[in-house]
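User: Could you write out the 3D structure of this protein bound to zinc ion? I've included everything you need below.
Assistant: Certainly. Input first, then the structure.
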Amino acid sequence: MDLTRRQAIGAGLAALGVASFGQRAAGQTSVPAANRRRVLRVAHITDCHLQAGPAEGGLARCFQHMRSQADAPTLILNTGDTVFNADARDEAETALQWALWRRITRAENSLPMEHALGNHCFWGANRERSKTTGREPRWGTKWAVDELGMPGPYYSFDRAGWHFVSLFNTRFNDAGGYTGGLDDEQFEWLAEDLRRRPANRPTVILSHISIVSVCSFFDGNNEREGGGWTINGGAMHTDARRLMQLFREVGNVRLCLSGHKHQVDLAELYGTRYWCGGAVSGNWWNDANPAHLGFERGYSLIDLYDDGSNDIQYVEYDLGYKPA
Ligand SMILES: [Zn+2]
């Protein structure tokens, strides 16, 4: 699919995302004000899955494509799975992947970046394959937090009149499996953070796994025999209802950005939009078959306005060479 058409679809989806149900239920509206003013243009990247090989040139190309935009973004929001799979790689391989990240971002990107951690950013979740014990000083989120210069595995900040919250929402079990969601400690932190923020400050939530996603229904054989649906607990927040309730209570949570599914979708509930932003790596850098379920490699351009409204488009980028 060519870029223009996909961009048009992205913009069309955004325009359709006006939910009268949400307006009535939450006393909010996502209908843009006639005199709204854009305060920030951000690029949303996710699922870079960087490792040695085609991913190196691909990621560089993505940054080049982004900065070649006539109306270029001034901030990058990255929702995780930045390196290929630190959860199941040993120390040497994980170090190599992070070294590649440093090299490519220093060479190709001069924009400020904010991050959320993905399941593959957590070093050693699979202890057997990563050859870790859990007692290594950089085990878990520590390594990625240090590499990415984050204040911690979850945090918040303000920019251009908007509030931003980065969550770490992969809940691992001892066997290295996981579900999407927040433990009580992080949930309480989030609730406190949102209540403390000025109520009129529109908010963006960054998380790797989607809090709500429509595409979770369509990434496998989710139709249950005999009727109904089965959604994997790792595909979407298992505590989505609890978070949605919080968002309705505090108000003005306008946009939740995520990745993880390598698919693109937009949902809106109670005045909050949920955008699942494809993947920089597409089909995990598979040159022979670059799109995952029809979704090409790409990133999102998102305009944030002073009235809390936002416009989103998914931008596919080409590699600039013919894959072998
Ligand atoms: Zn993921």
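The domain at 3-316 is CATH 3.60.21.10 (Purple Acid Phosphatase; chain A, domain 2).
User: Perfect, thank you.
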